[in-house]
Design a protein that fits this description.
Elements (H helix, E strand, L loop, with lengths): L2 H10 L7 H12 L2 H6 L8 E6 L5 E7 L7 E2 L5 E8 L1 E7 L10 E3 L5 E7 L3 E4 L5 E4 L7 E8 L5 E7 L2 E8 L6
Antiparallel strand pairs: 1-2, 2-10, 3-11, 4-8, 4-10, 5-7, 5-9, 6-12, 11-12
Length: 179
């Protein structure tokens, strides 16, 4: 291979997709940007969000959480992701088990798969593909604000309901439904 061929290949090579760790670094840095966090309009009842430019073609969001709001159980399909709390406190309930990719409407979860985290201002976490969780602002009086990033950009979100150990697939949302 000639040096010119190697050089041309290096110039046209696509940048590596951002890892969950890189996304976590990004959301932590953005969460520390108090001017940006303060610029988010907060609604007293519903969540608000603004799309941000994420690293390496990732999808990123700044989200405002009124008191007592949450996402409900959901996943992010094939995307890896991260989120960090910029203001307030968020609670995350998640599953440590990977769900089957398709062909089911209802599953009974094994004991011991539940995980709970509390993420205070400045704290964040990364997650891999097929991560199932819900995020909640349990404060009765204070808004929370967080930064989220996903790669690849979310192809879909599966929404679930949960009663005890039973998880039910309720809905599949496509990007045009939340953008």
């Amino acid at each position: 291979m000639s040096p010119q061929t190697v050089s041309a290949s290096a110039r046209t090579a696509a940048p590596a997709a951002p890892t969950a760790a890189r996304l976590l670094d990004f959301v932590r840095r953005v969460a520390a940007d108090t001017a940006l966090i303060d610029s988010l309009p907060l609604d007293p009842v519903g969540r608000t969000w603004v799309r941000l430019d994420g690293p390496g073609g990732s999808e990123a969001w700044l989200i405002g959480w009124p008191p007592g709001t949450g996402t409900g159980w959901h996943d992010h399909a094939e995307s890896v992701g991260a989120f960090a709390t910029a203001r307030g406190t968020l609670h995350e309930n998640s599953l440590s088990a990977r769900l089957p990719s398709g062909g089911w409407r209802s599953l009974e979860l094994d004991e011991g798969v539940d995980r709970r985290r509390v993420l205070r201002t400045g704290e964040g976490r990364a997650f891999g593909r097929h991560h199932v969780h819900e995020v909640l602002n349990q404060s009765p009086a204070e808004h929370a604000v967080s930064v989220h990033a996903y790669h690849p950009p979310l192809p879909l979100i599966r929404r679930f309901s949960r009663t005890g150990p039973v998880l039910r697939l309720e809905q599949v949302e496509r990007p045009e439904e939340w953008q």
